[in-house]
Amino acid sequence: MNETVKTIIPAEPISVSVEGMTCASCVRRVEVAAGKVPGVAASSVNFATKKLTVEPTAGFSAKTLAAAVKKIGYEVAPETITLSAHGLKGADDAARLKVVLEAGPTTVSAEVDAQSGAVTIESMGGARQREVLVETARLAGFALKALDAVGRTHAGHEHMHHAGDEASLKRDVVLAAIFTAPLFVLEMGGHLYAPMHRWLMGVIETQTLYYVYFALATVVIFGPGWRFLKSGFPALAHGAPEMNSLVALGVSAAYLYSLVTTFSPGLLPDNARHVYYEAATVIVTLILLGRLLEARASGKTGDAIRKLASLQAKTARVERGGQTLDIAPEELVVGDIIIIRPGERLAVDGEVVEGASYIDESMISGEPVPVEKTVGTHVTGGTINGNGTLKFRATKVGADTMLAQIIALVEQAQGAKLPIQLLVDRVTALFVPVVIGVAVLTFVVWAIFGPQPAYTYALINAVAVLIIACPCAMGLATPTSIMVGTGRAAELGVLFRKGEALQALRSAGVVVVDKTGTVTKGRPELTDLVVADGFQRHEVLRLVAAVESRSEHPIAEAIVRAARVEEPLPNPSPQGGGANLDVRTEVDTVPIETQRVPPVSSPRGGEGGPEGRMRGPGLRDAESLPPHPAAATFSPSGRRTQDADSLSISERPVGAGVFASTITNFQSVTGYGISATIDGHRVHVGADRFMSKLGLSVAPFADTAQKLGDGGKTPLYAAIDGQLAAVIAVADPLKPSSIDAIKALKSMGIEVAMVTGDNALTAKAIARQVGIEKVVAEVLPEGKVQAIHDLRRGGKTLAFVGDGINDAPALAEADIGIAIGTGTDVAIESADVVLVGGDLMGVVHAIDMSRATMRNIRQNLFWAFGYNVALIPVAAGALYPAFGIMLSPMVGAGAMALSSVFVLGNALRLKTTKVSP
């Protein structure tokens, strides 16, 4: 069995839970230990999630990492994956498969049952680990697949693990309270109620009472309190004390002092013979109670991930080999045909190949209205089908689906460390040793200079210092706010890919937006149709759409879509050219009554026509959209600025309804337009120069066309049977929220600018509509980078929002790159923040959440540091000389327990953060 095993190193960081971390000092110890493991390029620990994240390189071994973490007193909790091996031929194959799997760099251990083929693997591989393991086995000649119909999600595993920790803490709290309560009543009741003290002294001798106290305290300290001792003292021995070390020292000091008083009282002066069993047990009980409250609050910080994970489908119905099978989503492969019945949840992303339905995508995009899905449209895993039945082809499966990527991005953001956290880590790394030093100094000072009994005062104050100090609050201050803040942002459709963006976005002074697909929908629509006298709007639209149905250009598709749904369209009236009509002048006013102009059939186009003035503004950035045959652009002087290519013609049959027409003699004239004979009518659709070429004057539509062009729309003309019939306007409409989003950004004191590759006329028209004053247009991708440099010269933090491939350089160059989630993968990979729903209002929400989260972090840090700075001197006895006030260790334990709970509670307020509507 000395064969060479081929292994796969994960390309993405690996995260694994670490058990036993109790404070920020633990974080530093684990990070340092993990960073020294061969094959680890970088390591980071998130105290809130209790997770270690490493970047693996060649030579990485999960077993080595687990051993390194265990050596310093902690345990990794790898994910357990259950698979089934097919075709095993006895024990030799099972043993060989075990060797293959355990040789994998992310595998901690593997077990293979030769009889059943069940494979159980403990792994650190993260979201893609199942795929990595299956591929590793395949390279060695084995076939693995999911054993259960429903695979356990990673988030579900984490939730079960957290629930187990909480149950253990609850059991320990109850047990500690049962034994602490009688001890506390017997000891403190006598001090608070004199008759009870006299009764006790008359019934039970003092020494006998001490034995009872000793028995009760021993059960508490070495039962529920053992968790503090077993990790606190080893950490102290390794020279890296942490939170448990403080508790262990304080409790042990009180317990051992009481032991001496109980069993060897002669070793102490008469006035120093006191027991503190009740203090030791109350400290343990209160700290355990605090940990339980902390665990419950901490569990709520992960609600966002669990909600997202709950969107995953449990099974998928797939067609394979002529059969319909129900399988686990993990077994789906690209190309599978999946059947979705009414009300079912989609398992993966894909493309509809049969059927039609409406799908609820609100859980992914935030859009409350179900979206129509027909053949050829994209569907997303995790969404819910409506009343129809669909078949779709899987295009993305496993960790590549949108839902899986969203979960991964949220987990990545929640595990991120902000720059501010680096300072906190440096301070907390020194905190515990400093506290121990202060406790020792307190004991010495009180023992030498304190009143009698000096050793009693010295012990009480030293223990109080150890117990009241709370590095936990400092360690939780930042990561818990990040967890809750990024989770709330995810609910709003904002995904922070990088932690630095969460901190930087709060100070953004300039937001630069791309136009197409960012401010606008990125999909042209028919916005206006003005018909001449003697023509019916419906008939004109039918004939024009029939001609355009032969084209695949976005402008043509917009006209065809409008004809299919027959939606009422704005119909601005033409003016000028001698038409004497009572008309309305607002081009965008809806609704507008149909206005007519006399039919025109002049042999030549007039000089006063709008030729050379109404140009076809690009509907996508100029460098990426193929031109319509009629959409060549000219400058206002009439000079051509962009050549048009030939039209791509589709030979698909014309559809039913208004398109059930006979189409013959179809022609495409590059740079002019298209024509065809429809049901015996000769129809021409194109630019003004096309009409001039036909000998038709467009003067009656001059003013209307000018207004359309100035409004950022593309005017085209239609001629039917040799007569000018209509002017048609197509535009890339604004997204519904764009105006409100720009207004909200300005109200935040943020400067907004637009940088686009589209022509200046269109860009300025769109900018006017949304309220943007600064526009940089007609720039290539490198020009966008230069524009960002120019806009940033004032020293302000700049965020760029875009969605296209040509936006990637600008997204990478900006201080914060924000990608529209409906854009390209390249743009998303270059961004720091992703807006899932594609809504520009997401930028406002991202800034709102950044500001709220950073404000919350500052509040937590102020409390955590202020608490320790204020109360440690009080615990040391600083108030005793002036006011005679001393702090009981039991009060210190309660304060310490509540300080962490306060930080968590404050962080949880982010779940209800109100953002701009």
TrEMBL record:
It is an enzyme of class 7 (translocase). It is found in: Cell membrane; Endomembrane system. The chain crosses the membrane at residues 173-196, 208-226, 246-268, 274-293, 427-449, 455-478, 861-880, 886-908. Gene3D superfamilies: 3.30.70.100, Calcium-transporting ATPase, cytoplasmic domain N (3.40.1110.10), Calcium-transporting ATPase, cytoplasmic transduction domain A (2.70.150.10), HAD superfamily/HAD-like (3.40.50.1000). GO terms for cellular component: endomembrane system; plasma membrane. Pfam families: E1-E2_ATPase, HMA, Hydrolase. It is a multi-pass membrane protein. Its EC number is 7.2.2.8. Belongs to the cation transport ATPase (P-type) (TC 3.A.3) family. Type IB subfamily. This is P-type Cu(+) transporter.
